[in-house]
Amino acid sequence: MCSTLSATDGQAIVQIDPKEYEELALTHLVLVDQRKYGSTTLCFYESPENKPRMTLTTKFNETFAFTKKFISHYQQMGAVIPSSRHLAQAMVAALPSIPSGQYIVELGAGTGVFTRQLLVDRPSNPIIAIELDHDMAERLRIASPKATIVEGDAAKLSDILSSLNIRRDQVGGVLSAIPFISLPASIGDAIFVAMAEVLTTGKPYIQVTYFSPTWRGFSVWKNFSRRSIKRVWRNVPPAEVMEFYRK
Fold first, then answer.
1. Mean pLDDT for all residues in the chain
2. Among candidate residues 174, 244, 176, 245, the one with its CA nearest the CA of residue 209
3. Can you give the CATH number for the domain in which 118 is found?
4. Looking at the structure, do residues 35 and 93 belong to the same domain, yes or no?
């Protein structure tokens, strides 16, 4: 077994047999956590100089929680594991420049992958993250305290924003991970109407999906026009980022 490991940045998982376990001599990494699963020990290392970000341990926990929730609420989830950071970056990059102080509303925030990216890339815009599932909303409040987390129904978006004293002209855009393909049409229609109610003409609505042709039959076209679709391959499964604007 290799007894040394070095890296200038990043993180690593080292899998070894417990019988052969020995402390590794690390040049640039430090041991932050260990997990034992049967005959396997997982060692989590990271650079002490890293900027604050999600650790591998946190990522493992979130993936487990997300997958567990998918099994019991598959219609609400849309994917088996959380979105990748590459998809998160693509989603936030699809949002045009939004005036400082205007709100960005996230629908279907889940484990907060997009929420965290919004907080990093759009620091001048307050983030309202709406999540229907109670457990995930609670996790979000802990993981992303700088965002306003609301446990609620996206179809009641106008009422939610009104309760927060946010006017329509203060909403700069909407970013959504709601799995419309797996939802009943009536629920999807209600959410599309709700988004139209809070966005003024020309405001963006960014949506992730996994099969864009299905959207041809959705009612989103009544109030929104689509300008572009970008494929993100570095995600499981590969995803599409769709850029809509309010008519």
1. 80
2. 176
3. 3.40.50.150
4. no
